[in-house]
Amino acid sequence: AVPCQGAVNTANAGAGGNQCLGAGGANPTTAFRIGTDGLVAPLPAAAQQLPQPFFPGTNGCSGAGCVSGTFFPTSGDSSAIDPHFRPNRVDSFDLTIQRELSPKAMIEVGYIGRLIRNELQNINLDAVPYMTTLGGQSFAQAYAALYTSICGLAGGACANNPYTGPAQPFFETALGGPSSAFCSGSANCTAAVIKAQGSNLKQGAVYDLWSALSRSSAWTLGRSLLSSVTPGTSLGNQLSSITMSTSLGYGNYNAGFVSFRLTDFHGFTGISNFTFSKALGTGAVTQSTSSFTVIDPWNLGLMYGPNGGNGRGFDSKYLFNQSLVYHPPFYKEQKGFVGHLLGGWGIAPLLTAQSGLATQINIGNGGDCQSFGEGNCSSTSTNENAVRVGPVPQMSLHYGVVSNGTCGKSGNSLGVNAFADPQAVCNSFRRLILGVDTNGGGTGRIPGFARWNLDASITKDTKFGERGIGVTFYALFTNVLNHFQPDDPTTNLDIDNPSSWGAVTGAPAAGSGYDPRQLEMGLRVRW
Question: What is the pTM of this model?
Answer without folding.
Answer: 0.80
